[in-house]
Amino acid sequence: MKRPWILITISFVLGELVGYEMSIKVIFIMVLMAILAVLMKKYSKFIILFSAFFILGMLCMFFAKNTFTNKNVKPSIKVERDIVVDEIVEKDTTIQIRAGKVIVYLKKELEVELKSGYKVRVTGKLMDIKPATNPGEFDAYLYYKAIGVEELISAKSIKVLDNRVNVFKVFLNNIRVSGLEKLSIIYEKEEAAFLSAALFGAKNLIEDKDYNLYRDSGMAHLLAISGLHISILGMSVYFLLRKKAKFNFIVSGLLASILLLMYSGLVGGGVSVIRAVTMLITVFVAEYLGRSYDLLSAACFSAVIILIISPFQIFQISFLLSFLAVISISIGTYLVKYFKFNKKGIKYSILQSIVISITVQICTLPIISYFFFSFSIYSVILNIFVIPLMALVIWSAIGAVFISFFSFKLSIFISGLSVY
Hints:
Layout: H1 4-21, H2 24-39, H3 45-66, E1 78-84, E2 87-90, E3 94-99, E4 102-107, E5 119-127, H4 140-146, E6 151-162, H5 167-186, H6 189-200, H7 208-216, H8 227-244, H9 249-267, H10 271-289, H11 295-309, H12 317-338, H13 346-372, H14 379-404, H15 408-419
Parallel strand pairs: 4-6
Antiparallel strand pairs: 1-5, 2-3, 3-4, 5-6
């Protein structure tokens, strides 16, 4: 069977959608019918594969839907939780602490020093997680289901019970903090905010008016750690190790994969990051095995992995746009070959960019319109010129940050590539 992962993904997604809407009795009956269909010899491998992943999708969604406990908890009641700190994000007046299935919002005035790995006792009030009540409204209930959060706590007090740290997470956090500090020194405020979002996922540094400008122009995707950034980083490192350092397939792929996984942890590991990292690791494995790499199959494999871990991602715009972008790039690549634009030269490179950019905009139009109720027409033109330049912007910013540890003046010179 050619491209079985496409069939697997379709059956798994359909199973999740059915599992979300149906009760356990209906699901049980459908599972029995699917099993009977599989057992009948006259059915092909196509039916067996479809039935197996359809059942898996239903069960994953059903258990995810019924193990989310926040719906049974009343908001505003006083709670006390002992948690282990996973991630710390500082905002203007608050500190956000992620600890497993709990997010704690802590006022900075409490002045508590925290690090990843600390065990703390939090006392505060539960915050309400509300579903959307109007079309187009942000659905906090589905969003927090998707990221595996069951409780939001507004902390009144916090006490450190155990100050043993998670060495690896603290190491990554120190790199992130150092990188953000260097960017703020090397670049002007607006430029530093953009690069902080593009390199480290720190979108909280961007002012609302600037973010609205990016969104209205259809360029907000540049502020997210997307597949574009991961691809630039991963393939560049792999190329340097493979072609320049002359390492073999295994060493090059392994080192590049480790770097990608570390970077994923550094920037928070969003859906687009996980998708891109998974697909790039698939590239390395395919090259090592001597197999051809198929973009759609790799994307489908990544989608199934993400949906097994977090079934409710299927309703999130980040998941939908990330995978629609990959599908549309695949379609655009086919059109480039069909119209015979896949030739060398500046003329054909521009034509390829135009075709793929237009295809991406058309394919993502329904989702963007549904979630944002607007769509930028001229974003098609802007993306044709901006996206190819992002590789230069990202690598010059990375180079400037790295060089700044040794020579500040040289880092300022290198930073000019990403500014001008």
